[in-house]
Amino acid sequence: MSDENKCCLFSPEDCARISRACVAFQLRRAARKVTKAFDEALRPSGLKITQFSLLTASFLQENQNVGRLAELLGMDRTTLSRNLKLLENRGLVKLEEGEDRREVRVSLTEEGLEAMEKAAPLWHQMQKQIVSGLGEFRWEAMMSELRLLGKALKK
Amino acid sequence: MSDENKCCLFSPEDCARISRACVAFQLRRAARKVTKAFDEALRPSGLKITQFSLLTASFLQENQNVGRLAELLGMDRTTLSRNLKLLENRGLVKLEEGEDRREVRVSLTEEGLEAMEKAAPLWHQMQKQIVSGLGEFRWEAMMSELRLLGKALKK
DNA sequence: GATATTTAAGTGTATATGCTCTTATCATGA
DNA sequence: TCATGATAAGAGCATATACACTTAAATATC
Question: Is any Cβ of chain A less than 8 angstroms from the Cβ of B32?
């Protein structure tokens, strides 16, 4: 790349500011790291943190339909659909036609419950480690900001 | 799922606490939402926020090798490798053998720079919207917490 | 009651992510 | 110089993510 082009619109300093400031970049990076930490911690349970989250949500929202569950989880319906399919293949959740036959209802199986129970203490340990690493106060603040961020992007 | 099993290890209330508290879940959810918002904002530029981030990083770290870049970005080397490959296919970055012939050196092409410049104002607008939606003060706090979180998980 | 509209979910396609294993190259020491 | 170990990156595999489009079922409208 030639020198005159390097200065078209932004300098390396501008660029560095973008990089440091970018909400998306920082959030995604943090999410990658935290995901990795939890995945390692949960490995003995055979679940990844995403799967543990889905099982937990399915337990909480027993017999919910896919669309509503996706909405609650803040994820795309089709993403959830595929992720649930994988859990169904492993026998961890049950997917059944609803009364409204367009709907698919989600529930945990016995095995799903067992997997969740096996993973729970591992989850708890890593969660404690992260919270204490960050400090209780900062952690509370961050959780609250993340929720606010979610609300701010609701529309 | 039978009733006696529902009480094995945790109640729905415990489960709700896990869900609300889980650092990984909240971070991933926030990352999904923010990613979506930026992807929509950047659409006219033909870049996704992840790609914009990579171009920016490549610009900042001109001629860096893949492994080091991955380290700086806090992502898996193999992930970065593949993502860069996609940008190379589109002619946005150049991947060249280094002096050490095991290494691959990354640099922006003219087109990559142009794409970045086209995306920058769109990025800026969404960034501003999110920051002001959250409030300058909370945003600063969150950025700092995310950086700390990263450091706490360094090892 | 037949047709049009709305709604729930699935499919096709593409990117993002990271683990494990492999390959190519470099550096080191006998 | 050759064997050995270290290092950089790629390949194979699997999951996570979401957009655009399609399909099937329920609802509304005439």
Answer: yes
Residue A87 token pair: 């859990």
On chain D, which bases lie within 7 A of the protein's CB atoms? 7-12, 15-20, 24-27
The CATH number linked to A78 is 1.10.10.10
pLDDT per residue as tens digits for the range A4-38: 444 456 677 777 778 888 999 999 999 999 999 99
Structural domains of chain A, count: 1
Range of the domain at A153: 47-155
Tally of CB atoms within 10 A around A59: 23
Residues A32, A20: Cα–Cα separation, whole Å: 16
Helix H or strand E encompassing B134: helix B110-134
A2 in a domain, yes or no? no
DSSP type of residue A44? G
Q: What angle do CA B87, B89, B94 make, to 5 degrees?
A: 65
- Tell me whether residue A63 is in a domain: yes
Residue found under tokens 């390097």: A6
Is B89 within 8 Å of B105 (Cβ atoms)?
no
Better pLDDT: B30 or A16: B30
Q: Which residues in chain A touch residue B37, judged by CB atoms under 8 angstroms apart?
A: 24, 153
Average per-residue pLDDT for chain A: 90
Q: Extract the tokens encoding B14.
A: 């415990």
CA distance A62 to A54: 12
